[in-house]
UniProtKB/TrEMBL annotation:
Name this protein carries in UniProt: MerR family transcriptional regulator
Disordered: annotated segments: 1-41
Biased composition (Low complexity): 21-32
Domain HTH merR-type: 44-112
Pfam assignment, any one: MerR_1
Superkingdom of origin: Bacteria
Length: 130
């Protein structure tokens, strides 16, 4: 899998492997500012800003990391940085948690939803090739 495929794959997989995270970091660093605005994987949001946008506490976001739903990239100073894609996953987790779903179960549901969406996307691509 080349670097561009890894970045694309990492966006669709809630829990990133270490090599996917490294590929996303390298791709983000090499992209132009205009591309970063459109890149759902660009780690643009700090912990505080992400929590503010979602209306959650930083502890909630850390708990999503502990549950392996999202693994934020780290800045050179070691601070967590979140992408728009990760914020969407966190918003879905909050929605499920607010409805009474346990956090671990909510994370598993989101991972399964994401895997299903990816499988459907791949099936559609394969159908269009034929």
């Amino acid at each position: 899998m080349d670097q561009q495929d890894q970045v694309s794959h990492s966006r669709r997989t809630p829990h990133r492997r270490a090599n996917d995270t490294a590929a996303a970091t390298a791709a983000a660093a090499s992209s132009s500012p205009g591309q970063r605005l459109d890149d759902e994987d660009y780690p643009a949001y700090s912990m505080g800003r992400a929590a503010e946008i979602l209306g959650v506490s930083p502890a909630f976001l850390r708990s999503l990391g502990a549950a392996k739903l999202i693994e934020p990239l780290r800045s050179e100073g070691g601070h967590r940085r979140f992408s728009r894609y990760q914020l969407r996953l966190a918003a879905r987790a909050r929605e499920l948690a607010d409805a009474g779903t346990a956090l671990e179960a909510a994370c598993r549901i989101i991972i399964l939803e994401d895997q299903l969406a990816e499988a459907l996307r791949i099936n559609e691509e394969l159908r269009q090739r034929d």
